[in-house]
Amino acid sequence: MRPLDYLVILAYFGVVIYLGLRARRSVHSSEDFFLSGRSLPVAITSVAFVAANMGSFELMGASATGAKYGMFATQLSWIGCVPAMIFSGLVMTRFFYGSKARSVPEYLRLRFDEKTRALNAVNFAFLTLFTSGLSLYGLATVFHAIFHWPIDLSIWIPACTVLAYVYLGGLRASIYTEVFQFFLIVVGTLPLSFMALYSCGGVSALLSRLPEKMAVE
Questions:
Q1: E strand map for the chain
Q2: Phi/psi zone of residue 186: left (φ > 0), alpha (ψ -120 to 50 degrees), beta?
Q3: What does the alpha-carbon distance between residue 12 and residue 3 come to, in Å, rounded to a whole number?
Q4: Which pairs count as long-range contacts for 24-32, CB under 8 Å and 24+ apart, including other chains?
Q5: What whole-number distance in Å separates Cα of residue 136 and Cα of residue 57?
Q6: Which helix H or strand E contains 161, and what residues bound it?
Q7: What residue ranges do the domains of the chain occupy?
Q8: Which residue of 60, 75, 182, 207 has the lowest C-beta tally within 10 Å?
Q9: Separation of alpha carbons 116 and 107, rounded Å
C-alpha cells in the first residue's frame, strides 16, 4: 500500500458520507426516508438494483464457487436469480407500488393480517443479520489482508460507515451510494479481468488448463 492507495480509500469513504449528508436535505418524513418520496428515476433505481447484486457474495463467493465447480456454478444465476428478478420487476413491483406500502412486511399486513406481517418481519430480520454479517466478514477479510487490521476493527469501520449514510439519507442515500459503487466495481473488475486473461494467454489457454468437467457448457 502506498500513500495514493490510502488517499483513494479515504476519498471513497468521504464520498459515501457526503452522499448521505446531501440526501438528508430531501428527508422530511418517513415516506422520504423509506421511499425517497417515490421520486427516483427508473434508470437510477435499475443501476442500484444491479449494484446490490454485486457485493462481496458475488465478487468473492461466486468467484470461489466458479473456481471450485466450474461452469456449473453459473446455473444458479440463469435458472434461479434471473427468472426471480424478472418476475419481481414485472409482477410484484406493480402490487407494491399500488399498495403504497413502505416495505414487504407492511404489504403483507395490508394483504393478510398483523400475524403474517410479524412473521415475515422476524424472518427478514434474521436473514438480514446473517447475510449482512457474512458480507461484512468478507469485506473485513480484504481489509485484514491489505491493512493488517484486526478483523473486529475491519468489520466495525464499514459497518459504521454504512449506518452513517443510511441514517442520514435513508433510501435516497442508499440508492445513490449503490450507483456510485456500481461504477467503481466495473472500473475495478473489468481491467482486472482482462489482465487475468492476458496473463493466462487468453480464453482458450485458460479453458485448456481447467479440468474437463469444469469447462462443460
A1: none
A2: alpha
A3: 14
A4: 24/168, 24/169, 24/173, 26/169, 26/172, 27/169, 27/170, 27/172, 30/102, 31/102, 32/170, 32/172
A5: 10
A6: helix 151-200
A7: 3-215
A8: 75
A9: 10
Reference 26, options 17, 15, 35; nearest CA is 35
* HSE-up of residue 81 (Cα within 13 Å, Cβ side): 13
The amino acid sitting at 138 is G
Contact 21, 167 (CB under 8 A): no
Higher per-residue confidence, 104 vs 72: 104
User: pLDDT for 11-43, tens place per residue?
Assistant: 988 898 898 888 888 888 877 888 787 788 888
Mind listing the pLDDT tens digit for each residue in 174-202? Answer: 888 888 888 888 888 888 888 888 888 88
The residue with cell 464520498 is 15
- Cell numbers found for residue 108: 403483507
How high is the pLDDT of residue 216? 52
